[in-house]
Amino acid sequence: MSLEPIVRIRSLKQDRVNFVLENVDLSYANSLRRVMMADIPTVAIDLVEITENTTVLPDEFISHRLGMIPLVSVNCDEVMRYNRDCVCVGFCDYCTIKLVIDVQCHDSVTMDVTSNHLESAVAAPFNNNGMDGDEISKRAPDFGSPVGKGVIGQPPVLIAKIRKGQRLQAVCIAKKGIAKEHAKWSPCTAVSFEYDPYNKLRHTTYWFETDIKKEWPISDNRLEEEEPRDDDAFDYLAKPNKFYFEVETDGSLGPQEVVMKGIAELKKKLENLVLGLKAPAELDAGFGVDEPMNSAPPAWDQPAPANAWNTGNNAANSSWGSNSPRGGGGASAWGAASSPTGAGATSAWGGGSAAGWGSPSTTQNGWNV
């Protein structure tokens, strides 16, 4: 009898969580790690229009830095649409967030341009085209703002340094996306998991010079498991069933939301996989008891109509060969007829089914559905 999966949280902070996942397969644990890193949607700057840039950095450099600034994306999957799925022309409030930055140095000391200088702006002159939706009303007041803006003790992200007389002015458009498209949409800075800290399964080969225990110290996760003896027999059938996760976020989403949405996304992927493996009869019956397949012959088992390339099921001579599955195609410059009955005649590429190139009969080996 299989055991139910167990999740035990060991520590939870504002930007990270450490937990133990038990009674699952190694493939599931690794899939959860990958989903949390690459399949959870967030908001990030995707388009930058630089109006004025007299800093020492080129436009592309600044645009890249702006795109990597984490933005608050709480409940992003419900409060914002994908721009590619929106029915608007260009951009609108439902699928984009507009941010502006306009900084100029007037003093003789170096000035830091940071993410705190990014300000949210009304999406005008964007047009919502009279679309209806409650996505905007569900957003938090700071949704789309740089992470940590105005928070005491949390340093902002540095964009550039400017001197007196220099200016940076730009308009930024933030969109919803996932890290499979670009790493800037990843809500995590790192997701790691460990299993078998004593390496009892021997999945890891350590390189060492003199003493493997001194050169490869065991992690603190060893306290969760029993230390093996040196004379213990190796178990070839053993599998890992306890995994130690450490999830660190960039602040766009909380660690609890990352884990919960990662599990939900993985569940959705598995449901779609099961749905794709269902037979058509099961889908028509609403996933009920299996029903026999439709006994009607498939399209390729029907006689081919007469056309300019074939004069019927028993075409005598054709430069292309007979294209009827049941026809007895005659001589062909391309070889035996393409009929599953293998009744093609002499061919420059080899004989019919006797030469090994003909297809088997439709009544053999399950070809006749």
TrEMBL record:
One of its GO terms (biological process) is transcription by RNA polymerase II. Keywords: DNA-directed RNA polymerase, Transcription. The keyword Transcription applies. Residues 306-324, 333-348 have a biased composition (Low complexity). Residues 16-276 form the DNA-directed RNA polymerase RpoA/D/Rpb3-type domain. Residues 293-369 are annotated as: Disordered. It holds the Pfam family RNA_pol_A_bac. One of its GO terms (cellular component) is RNA polymerase II, core complex. SMART domains: RPOLD (SM00662). The keyword Phosphoprotein does not apply. InterPro entries: DNA-dir_RNA_pol_30-40kDasu_CS, DNA-dir_RNA_pol_insert, DNA-dir_RNA_pol_RpoA/D/Rpb3, RBP11-like, RNAP_Rpo3/Rpb3/RPAC1, RNApol_insert_sf, Rpo3/RPB3_RNA_Pol_subunit. This is RBP11-like subunits of RNA polymerase. GO terms for molecular function: DNA binding; DNA-directed RNA polymerase activity; protein dimerization activity. Belongs to the archaeal Rpo3/eukaryotic RPB3 RNA polymerase subunit family.
